[in-house]
Amino acid sequence: MDEVIKATNELKEYLLSLNEVQEYLRLKKAYEEDPSLKELKKLIVRAKNENRMDDYKILKAKFDEHPLVNNYLSSKEEVKNILKEVSEILN
């Protein structure tokens, strides 16, 4: 069992050392902490809750087109594919 834990920790360290994973983590932090995106999310939720669908669509499009959102989602997809590949190898 110790060998499995050791191998798992080594895999984790390897994955965290990958440029793609490091970039994803950097973008994730920026995405989660960006004040303009936080405000936009609040406005989107408020518009939806108040059933202002035209405003909601405009705000949602603005959010979806934000460069940080696009970069974050693209990076997330890259890491997802790496993890999928690891999962397929392990299975």
Essential attributes:
mainly alpha; 5 helices; elongated; 91 residues
The whole-number mean of residue pLDDT values reads 96
Reported for the largest beta sheet, the result is: none
Number of strands: 0
SSE arrangement, N to C:
HHHHH
Helix percent reads: over 70%
Strand content: under 5%
Query: Number of DSSP helices?
Result: 5
What gap, in angstroms, lies between the N and C termini? 18 Å
**Form type:** elongated
**Which blocks of ≥5 consecutive residues have pLDDT under 50?**
none
Based on secondary structure, the structural category is mainly alpha
Radius of gyration: 18 Å
Concise structural overview:
Helix content is 91%, strand content 0%. It is built from five helices and no strands.
Describe the protein in words.
The protein is mainly alpha-helical and 91 residues long. It contains five helices and no strands. The model has no long low-confidence stretch (mean pLDDT 96).
Layout of helices and strands:
Layout (H helix, E strand, L loop, with lengths): L1 H16 L1 H15 L1 H15 L3 H13 L1 H24 L1
Helix pairs in contact: 2-5, 3-4
